[in-house]
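Hey, can you fold this one?
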Amino acid sequence: MLSAEKKYQILEEIKAHPNKKGEILRREGLYSSDLLRYEEAAREGAIKELKNSVPGRKKTKEVPIEEYERIKAELERKEKALADLTVEHMILKKKVNGE
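Sure. Predicted structure:
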């Protein structure tokens, strides 16, 4: 049984090389009827996905306040650590340069 990804790859390969359709079908052990089913499934999937898509920017994802506060605190800790490391780096740089 072929995966959905493999079926789609076969469709794309046949679109890219329509003159090799028979060769590709034989290589994959498929029939033209299989190809028709794959094309219809791809069409239906595309239509379904396009119905769900809305033009413009994606809506921002809402985050629970607890998660926001946790991430904010983590960012503050990391910013402080970065500032401390920057100070340490400057001190070591002065020592190395003999200042």
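The mean pLDDT is 92. Let me know if you want another pass with a different chain boundary.
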